[in-house]
Write a structure and sequence with these properties.
Chain lengths: 356, 320
């Protein structure tokens, strides 16, 4: 009995030793993050590539932006991730630094038999009226007027929306609030709002399911999801009055046109004035504690190393997954913010650009 | 020899101690369940207290559920009504079928068929609710949309007085009707199994006497079996209702998740459980929204508790 016990513990010890050895050799460091589900596919792919490149292992749990904010506020993870930026007051209260990683865009998908992909043209006013329940049929004179070259069917308009709280809803309703006073004073902008009409479903897949199954349905989905699933999308007229297609050049134009020097990187990329921008895009953010406790300093540094690597080498991965990379100028500003704001308990900067 | 005569006493005393320990363990397990239940209620209540304080009675009677930050307003009436309506509709759909199944199994089915059909019903009860949700979304919802709502919607809406129940502008198929149908299928096995069991408990001599007097099977069912088991049957239905009230995943898939008051069974609406499931992950800790969601949970707990208490009371074994 005793003999067997000894042998087992010996074996355990023998098994543990080489593992500890390799860990020390490869300097694998694990960082944990939690939050938004929208960037999860990207962070996971970055994590795979970064593990080989810089030896940082990322464990990311996509529990939703709200969950991510709660977790990082409680400091149970190394970083949080949120689709909607936090306000300056919220960041100060939680002692968090906020920086963007990539942008995402929201597109509209409609199920109109006989209407080709990106053929339908919509103006902001029409979109607002559709989601307010004022445009009830697809052969509405105003829709016909701006879509003279396609035949619109006489179908009821069935709006579809995300019923679960989501960053996608936040982006889309922020856009609607921007283009319409009535929407701003009515349903407003948030991760979940009070929809006047339509059907709610869970996730991009739920909305896309309603759109697919219901002739005449229109819903908003995250662009990466729409592209991967080959959904029929629409053109939208942007602020400059140009009808634009939801494609990468228009998304990158929005990222380039945004002002990244604003406080907390809460850059406004919605309904920008440039003629070639897609009007509904938004950055997704990382929340990093400004005051990591002593035993979290290394993890904080590794988190910044991870995203530093992602900015330098991750753009191609982002693009293949249909995420919109930030412009180079923004990367520099973010690194400067790391060096300035993240301090260890002794007050020294955790991030040193040369030590990366 | 002396060892054997003495042995009962030493063997007994550890036995007594064991009995005491065992009794104590059982008692604490029982109390633990009570404490756990109480703790859940108290946690939900404390979590929901800010919402109750801020909105007062409005929390229950207002239909305005606006989670937008900065102007939060939480009225749970839509969710409460949606929960009750979907469950009651489900009961209306499920009870006649459940009764037919139980009637068939206890009175009509040949003995060799009773076992497989009974087992099938029990298996139906074991299907996870997410499966019903997916099946409902991909099969039942299009079916309702294409073969019930589109062809019959306008005909039904033209019926005087009650037509408005079927008159809807919602053509996606996800609706209160779809949710009630899915819940009905989910609770069917519970009600059917309870009914079968209580029908089987009717003393054969009662039924035989009725048959002896020349009663038909239906007359026996109506005048002997049902009166004898009436209260237990209602208890079984309440048990199904209890499950229907708390059903979350399957309902969320097919109800349309619209926090709006419905005027028609084909409108989309929401239930307490789906609102909580949908909005909880994105609610910030300590926010009015989270408090309102916890308060919703508390209300659901109370509703389910009352329904289950009534069913237990009706199903209680009685001395006859």
């Amino acid at each position: 009995m005793t003999h067997g016990f000894n042998r087992r513990s010996l074996m355990l010890g023998a098994a543990a030793l080489p593992m500890a050895g390799t860990a020390a050799l490869a300097q694998t460091a694990t960082i944990t993050g939690a939050g938004a589900s929208f960037p999860r596919p990207l962070y996971e792919r970055w994590a795979q590539a970064a593990q080989a490149a810089i030896g940082v292992t990322l464990n990311y749990q996509s529990i939703g932006s709200g969950g991510g904010i709660n977790q990082i506020t409680a400091r149970t993870v190394d970083f949080g991730a949120s689709d909607a930026p936090l306000t300056a007051a919220q960041l100060t209260e939680r002692r968090l630094l906020q920086f963007p990683t990539v942008l995402g865009s929201v597109v509209l998908s409609a199920n109109l038999p006989g209407v080709a992909d990106n053929a339908l043209r919509l103006t902001p006013e029409i979109i607002v009226d559709i989601f307010l329940g004022r445009v009830t049929r697809w052969n509405d004179p105003r829709l016909v007027e701006m879509n003279r070259d396609i035949r619109l069917p006489n179908l009821p308009v069935s709006p579809a929306y995300r019923a679960d709280g989501s960053g996608t809803t936040w982006v889309f309703t922020t856009y609607l609030s921007r283009v319409s006073d009535e929407w701003r004073n009515g349903p407003g902008a948030g991760t979940a709002v009070r929809w006047p009409v339509g059907n709610g479903a869970r996730g991009n897949e739920g909305v896309s399911n309603i759109v697919r199954n219901t002739p005449g349905a229109i819903g908003y989905v995250e662009n990466a999801y729409a592209t991967v699933n080959r959904m029929t999308t629409t053109q939208i007229r942007n602020k400059a009055g140009v009808f634009v297609r939801p494609e990468m050049p228009q998304f990158l134009a929005a990222a380039a046109a945004a002002d990244w020097t604003v406080p907390n990187f809460a850059a406004d990329t919605i309904d920008l004035a440039q003629p070639d921008v897609w009007p509904i895009t938004s950055p997704t953010y990382i929340l990093l504690p400004m005051n990591p406790v002593a035993d979290r300093v290394a993890a904080s540094r590794n988190t910044m190393r991870f995203f530093d690597w992602a900015y330098r080498s991750g753009s191609q991965i982002a693009r293949t997954l249909e995420y919109i990379a930030l412009p180079e100028s923004a990367h520099g500003l973010i690194r400067a913010a790391w060096a300035r704001d993240i301090r260890d308990p002794a007050g020294a900067a955790v991030w040193t650009p040369t030590g990366a | 020899m002396s060892a054997t005569t003495h042995s009962p006493a030493p063997r007994r005393s550890p036995g007594l101690l064991g009995d005491k320990i065992f009794a104590l363990l059982c008692k604490s397990a029982g109390i633990f369940v009570l404490l756990l239940l109480g703790a859940i209620i108290v946690t939900l209540f404390i979590g929901g207290l800010p919402a109750f304080q801020r909105f007062g009675l409005d929390f229950i009677i207002s239909t305005r559920w606006d989670p937008v930050e900065g102007r939060e307003e939480f009225g749970a009436a839509v969710a409460i009504i949606g929960t009750v309506l979907s469950s009651v509709l489900a009961i209306i759909f499920a009870v006649p079928i459940a009764f037919s199944i139980a009637f068939y199994l206890t009175e009509l089915a040949p003995p060799w068929l009773k076992r497989p059909v009974g087992t099938a019903i029990e298996l139906l009860a074991a299907v996870p609710s997410i499966i019903f949700g997916m099946w409902g979304l991909f099969f039942l919802v299009p079916l309702i949309q294409r073969y019930i709502q589109l062809p019959f919607g306008e005909v039904l809406a033209a019926i005087p007085l009650v037509g408005f129940i079927f008159d809807s502008n919602n053509f996606a198929g996800t609706s209160l009707f779809a949710a009630a149908l899915v819940i009905a299928i989910m609770i069917l096995p519970f009600i059917a199994a309870t009914m079968r069991d209580v029908f089987d408990q009717v003393p054969p001599v009662y039924k035989e006497s009725a048959y002896g007097l020349g009663a038909t099977r239906w007359e026996v069912m109506r005048n002997v079996v049902l009166p004898y088991t009436r209260v237990s049957v209602v208890g079984g239905i309440m048990l199904g209702l209890g499950r229907a009230l708390g059903e979350t995943m399957a309902v969320t898939f097919v109800i349309g998740n619209a926090n709006r008051m419905i005027t028609s069974v084909f409108d989309s609406t929401t239930t307490i459980a789906s609102v909580v499931a949908m909005e909880f992950p994105e609610s910030l800790a300590g926010s009015p929204q989270q408090s309102a969601l916890l308060a919703l949970g508390f209300i659901l707990f109370i509703i389910s508790f009352v329904v289950l208490a009534i069913s237990r009371w009706l199903l209680r074994p009685r001395l006859k």
